[in-house]
Fold NADH-quinone oxidoreductase subunit L.
Amino acid sequence: MILAIVFLPLLAAAIAGLGNKALGFTPAKLITTGALFVSCALSWPIFIGFMAGTETAHVTPVLKWIVSGGMDAAWALRVDALTAVMLVVITSVSALVHLYSWGYMSEDPDQPRFFAYLSLFTFAMLMLVTADSLVQMFFGWEGVGLASYLLIGFWFRKPTAQAAAIKAFVVNRVGDLGFMLGIFGTFLVFGTVSIPAILAAAPNMAGSTIGFLWFRADTLTVLCLLLFVGAMGKSAQLGLHTWLPDAMEGPTPVSALIHAATMVTAGVFMVCRLSPMFEMAPVALDVVRFVGAATCLFAATCGLVQTDIKRVIAYSTCSQLGYMFFAAGVGAYGAAMFHLFTHAFFKALLFLGAGSVIHAMHHEQDMRYYGGLRKEIPLTFWAMMMGTLAITGVGIPGLVGLPNIGFAGFHSKDAIIEAGWASGNPGVWFVGVLVALLTSFYSWRVMFLTFWGQPRWVNSEHVQHAVHDAHGHDHGHDHAHDAHHTDDAHGNPAQAEDAGHAPTTHGPSQQELKVGTGGYHPHESPLPMLVPLGVLSLGAIAAGFVFHGYFIEPEAGAHFWKGALAFREHLMHAMHEVPVPIKLSATVAMLLGLYTAWYAYIRNTRFPAIVAEQFSVLYDFLLHKWYFDELYNLLFVRPAFAIGRLLWHRGDEQTIDRFGPNGSAWLVQLGSRGAAKLQSGYLYSYAFVMLIGLTAAVTWAIAG
């Protein structure tokens, strides 16, 4: 069964990719989507089996892979509770994204290539989570990096998409260098790359030291920190996060698959998989906790002021990943995986819902040009509402006899915040509560700007183009990627795309211009896009209260995980015994964020502009994402380009070429010109040369 789950996506990717347009659009989509739904259908029984206690951890050998000296890296698929969680997350979201793409990419001319890339990415991610050795994990790790590069840059004719793909690839290479050094060091210390063998031997290395750079340090601390650098890159943690917002240049289904449910969670999965090793390195856990909390806060502040709907959700993803890491940093690995599980459903829902809004608004992604859409696209509105209720943590705390029930994020995010307090880290708890408030604010800001208020569509250049085309000036249907080749209404490179469906429009009346519609009539998405929204909405509603016991309840959790990760039962008990104000803190923060967003964007719509003007320095600081891109451009990008130009002009052109091939060619050319002067073609010239040669020979003979 596990072989079929892992290799069906690879087979489908090979058929669709090699067949490409010769295979045809529909067969390519049927093969790839069908393979993912089969993998999904096979994954859920494994997960349910671990919940029921009927399934046990096992390893399925595939083949002998690398045998070199003392290293034996067999290719084998490990299945335990941790793997089962990731299997259902990856295959479920990927299958729904494949189906969604039937509608979203319906007008794109390169559909077989797109679906092949999606399936290839899914295979690489499945290889990562089923790895039984660090080398196999690294194979999947690099595989998802390659596939993400291909998917982010899918619209390769668009310069911003090319730049975003390269940026993601380069930034992840920085993290992957740390991951490789961690793998090398782990093999050096333990003499094996087998994950079970490493985790079994980790306690014996506690307290030992190793030489690293110019000093000696705790062995496990060094190894865990190096491995965590890899997690920081793949999961977009503070410092190596800059690629994630720019990755929104790819098609929206890519954002839902890679940047919500799968690749960005690889770092969290790796830390939890190696959690027994991290437990032996408390300093490394302190770093994980600090980086997670800092990322959580940083990304939430950036999300407050973004106007691109996808970028708000991207920074939300970065922030939620920070939650997962600081949960792991306090030792609540079960809570980290629980939030990973629930986050996959509601964040994929939000991304796909945003894609449905963009589709309805004819490529427009700027929320300032939305408004009043809840009656125009009601199904999308309710799907986005479910996702917002989940991410903000709406629920009823189980106090004074009330049932402890709520949307997905209520159970998983609140558990992390409570774990921060229960572990004796009040600073981390405070950051978690503050970020909960910020999350509520920017999430409801998206909803209010998009679905409430008066329509502001008339100011959108994309909408104006749609209305203009509907007046008999239609220049042909835009393919999904063609929308990216022009600048938007704000003078910035276009960052939007649609599913290629022509909107329903008519000539604008004076009344329509007055109310801001401009004569444009948004339309609901097609069925292939709405079905995934409905299924993911169920996950956003029910994933929390249905599954929380298996992830974080002391007894049930220990029975479910069965050693797949380090499960601290005493911490889980302490989480349930925190004081009432601590239990209520996240809910109070959520309500404060909701009220503030309502006041700013419904009650008093001038309030945001007033605040931005009064705190202009802070507003610009957040709008420029804490100036990380500008700082990196100054410290790394410009010097790298300067060094490149120096080596190019001075090193390559003026040194290597000058004294190498170009210099040799110049000497040959010079000699040829001299020889050409001797080859005059006149007989007396040749006779004169022969006479000179004969005279020289006789002179030499006489002198000798």
